[in-house]
Amino acid sequence: MKSLPRFWRAGIQACALVVVAPVALAAPAQQALLSEWQTGSTRAFSATRGQKLFNDRTGSDWSCATCHTADPRQAGQHATTSKPIKPLAPAANAARFTDPAKVEKWFRRNCNDVLGRECTPTEKGDVLTWLMSLK
Amino acid sequence: MNSPHHMPRYEVAARVLAVLLLTFTAAAPAAELQDECGACHIVYPAKLLPAQSWQQVMGSLAKHFGTDASLDPAAAKRIEALLVQGAGQPRRMRLAPGQPAPLRITEMQWFLREHDEIPPSRWRSPKVRSASRCEACHVNAERGQFDDDDKK
Predict the structure, then answer these.
(1) Which residues of chain B neighbour A81 with C-beta distances below 8 Å?
(2) Which residue of B has its CA nearest to A80?
């Protein structure tokens, strides 16, 4: 194959970078969150505990799964407003857990709604560990 | 091309940059309002509630109609300023002087009057479920249009 002119090659490389970079950067962002929560936790994170918490309804009428569905690779729907919610599992939505401020904002709100209190670093780590285990 | 009427290139560039920056800084709070309010429900046009109601709504986000919608205080202030700026005029909202404004759009006099022909069964139907879901009937609600002709 005849090699492409330098101009086009540079263009294609730039486009590829734009497409690949968010995916490549997502995993470190999630790892950074886990590391941060781990410093505030005395236990190793557990996907099993994360899944259990995600489906737990002892704190209120709602569990996380009420809106995010029991399979967070699927799209969900807000229980009150019916607004569509994009999948929560990074495997289905690479943008998830890449913005720490957004992650903390939604954990704060949703844990208050579901559990009536904020989640501990261990709980947040458990849930993200479970979500990251879903392929 | 170097006639005295032509601006130097750096000045053209500086002016373009200034315009872009101004556009961006003016658009940023509007985009923030769209993102934050629109994350959970349609973005209700500011004019549907008086300023007093918006101030109370934005001052009680941790208890927002049954859910925690708490926000970074600085962001909440920026959004509140936009809502207050675009809020409905109390007189047009039919609020008597000194009368407390409801927090819910659906409790405003104008809302009740506009919807007095809707039977309770329609509100309760699975497709509607809540009067807060404007978009269940008003197809262009997301764009802030609520004409009777648009109804589903």
Answers:
(1) 40-41, 130, 132-133
(2) B130
d(CA A35, CA A32): 5
Q: Domains of chain A by range and CATH?
A: 10-133 (1.10.760.10)
Put simply, the answer to whether B40 touches A112 (Cβ < 8 Å) is no
User: Out of B70, B71, B132, whose CB is closest to A81?
Assistant: B132
Nearest to B114 by CA among B137, B89, B98: B137
User: What is the pLDDT, as a whole number, of residue A105?
Assistant: 97
The pair of three-digit structure tokens given for residue A28, joined into one six-digit string: 């470190």
- Please report how many Cα atoms fall inside a 13 Å half-sphere around the Cα of residue B15, on the Cβ side: 5
Residues in chain A closer than 8 A to B133 (CB atoms): 81-82
Query: What does the pLDDT look like over B8-22, one tens digit per residue?
Result: 888 889 888 888 887
d(CA B108, CA B59): 19
pLDDT digits (tens, 9 = 90+) for A41-56: 999 999 999 999 999 9
pTM across the whole model: 0.79
What number of residues does chain A have?
Answer: 135
Tokens at A26, concatenated: 């997502």
Single out the residue of B29, B79, B35 nearest to residue A101, CA to CA. Answer: B35
User: How far apart (Å, rounded) are the C-alpha atoms in residues A37 and B75?
Assistant: 25
The answer to whether A93 and A86 are in contact (CB under 8 A) is yes
